[in-house]
C-alpha cells in the first residue's frame, strides 16, 4: 500500500503505482483546485506542496503533480490548495493575491498560491527577488504578472519576522497555513516506518522526463521507483571531486554550499534549468539517461569531465566517461539492467574556470535552442587544458573533442579563439527544427563559444574584437 497524508487526511491506496499524483487528487479525492494544464510540468497549474523528513526535520517543496508518480509521495505530506484554507478567512498568500488584484480567470491561481505558501514554509531570508523566484514555475495568461509580483512582495514583507527556530508554529500563528500543520511531523514519522517496495524492472526517478514522453503508456510499464531509496541519494566530496548519487536533484545541487562556494555563478547557471517545482524533483541521472541532445545538466557535466558508475541488478558496477556514454541519438552505452548509480566530476580549483551559456525562446522554464559549457585551466596567459561541450547542434550532447584539444597550450588571444571557433564549426551538425534553422544554431554556437571567453577573460578578450 502507498500511504501518505493528503492535506489533513491519511491516505492508503493500492492504485497502480504509475498513477500520477495529479490524477489521484482530482479524480480519486475530488480535489479539483489542482488543475490539469499542460501535463508536461510547464504551466504550474497542478503545483502542490510535498513535505518530507530530511535529517530529522520536516521540509516542504513545490512540485508539479502531473509528473509525480504516487510512490514518490509515500510517507510524505501532500498539500493541495484546499489544504491551505483557514477555517474562516483567507491565508496570507490568498489575501495578498486579493489585495494586489493578482487573479483574473483564476485557472492558474491555485498553483500560484501553493508556490507562495511553499515559499513561506521554506524561506530563511525573505526578499522580493526570492519570493518572485519561488513562482518561476507558474504561468499566467491574464495578468501580465506585475500584480502577482506585487502579491509575492507583500507576502515576503510579512515574512521578515518569521521565527526560523519554530517556523511552523509561527506560520500557523500568523495565518500563513492552517493549524493542522502542527501535527504533521509526528504523523509522517509514523508512516515512514512502513517502507514502500516496488519490484519493477524499468527504473524511474523524479518522472520529469518519462511522464512527459510516455504518459499514456506508463500504466503498462513495470516500473522500479528509485527516487527515495537511501543508497541512491546524497552528494559527497572527496578532495575536489564531487560524487552525486543517482537520485540527487537539481535543487540538491543548487542549494549545496560546497558547490556554491567552489563554482562562481553556480546558482545563476542552475536557475536557467527549468523551474523550481521541476528542479525539486528532476534527478541528474534522469537528465543524463534521457539522452536529450540539449540536456542542460548533461552539457554542464560534459565540460566537467564527468564519469558515470553503472550498476546492474546483481550489484556489479563499471565506469564510463560521460563523453563516451552517448553512441547515437537516444542510444547509450548502458545495458537494460543497469542504472546510473553515481556521477563523479572534478570541481574547479585555483587556475580553473567554468562557464555555462544557454539560449532559448524564453529565459526561464524552457528547453534550450543551443546550450554550451566550458572548463578552462590556465597559467599566466596560456590555456593549459580546456573541455568544451555544446547541445542542440547534433544528435547527441556534444563533447567538443577537437576544439578542446586545439585550445590546450594556446595563448589566450582573440586570434586563437577565432581559430578555435572555426574548428568548433566542423564538429557541429545541427538540423533545422522548431527551435531554429541550422544556420541560426551555428550562429548561436559561435556566439556562446565566444561568450565563454568574454566572460572568463574580460581583461583579455573583448566582444568588439571577436565580432
UniProtKB/TrEMBL annotation:
<feature type="domain" description="2Fe-2S ferredoxin-type">
    <location>
        <begin position="1"/>
        <end position="84"/>
    </location>
</feature>
<dbReference type="InterPro" id="IPR016166">
    <property type="entry name" value="FAD-bd_PCMH"/>
</dbReference>
<keyword id="KW-0408">Iron</keyword>
<dbReference type="Pfam" id="PF03450">
    <property type="entry name" value="CO_deh_flav_C"/>
</dbReference>
<dbReference type="Pfam" id="PF01799">
    <property type="entry name" value="Fer2_2"/>
</dbReference>
<dbReference type="InterPro" id="IPR005107">
    <property type="entry name" value="CO_DH_flav_C"/>
</dbReference>
<dbReference type="InterPro" id="IPR036683">
    <property type="entry name" value="CO_DH_flav_C_dom_sf"/>
</dbReference>
<keyword id="KW-0560">Oxidoreductase</keyword>
<dbReference type="InterPro" id="IPR002888">
    <property type="entry name" value="2Fe-2S-bd"/>
</dbReference>
<dbReference type="InterPro" id="IPR016208">
    <property type="entry name" value="Ald_Oxase/xanthine_DH-like"/>
</dbReference>
<protein>
    <submittedName>
        <fullName>FAD binding domain-containing protein</fullName>
    </submittedName>
</protein>
<dbReference type="InterPro" id="IPR036010">
    <property type="entry name" value="2Fe-2S_ferredoxin-like_sf"/>
</dbReference>
<keyword id="KW-0479">Metal-binding</keyword>
<dbReference type="Pfam" id="PF00111">
    <property type="entry name" value="Fer2"/>
</dbReference>
<dbReference type="InterPro" id="IPR016169">
    <property type="entry name" value="FAD-bd_PCMH_sub2"/>
</dbReference>
<dbReference type="InterPro" id="IPR036884">
    <property type="entry name" value="2Fe-2S-bd_dom_sf"/>
</dbReference>
<dbReference type="InterPro" id="IPR012675">
    <property type="entry name" value="Beta-grasp_dom_sf"/>
</dbReference>
<feature type="domain" description="FAD-binding PCMH-type">
    <location>
        <begin position="163"/>
        <end position="350"/>
    </location>
</feature>
<dbReference type="InterPro" id="IPR006058">
    <property type="entry name" value="2Fe2S_fd_BS"/>
</dbReference>
<dbReference type="InterPro" id="IPR001041">
    <property type="entry name" value="2Fe-2S_ferredoxin-type"/>
</dbReference>
<dbReference type="Pfam" id="PF00941">
    <property type="entry name" value="FAD_binding_5"/>
</dbReference>
<dbReference type="InterPro" id="IPR002346">
    <property type="entry name" value="Mopterin_DH_FAD-bd"/>
</dbReference>
<dbReference type="InterPro" id="IPR036318">
    <property type="entry name" value="FAD-bd_PCMH-like_sf"/>
</dbReference>
<keyword id="KW-0274">FAD</keyword>
<keyword id="KW-0285">Flavoprotein</keyword>
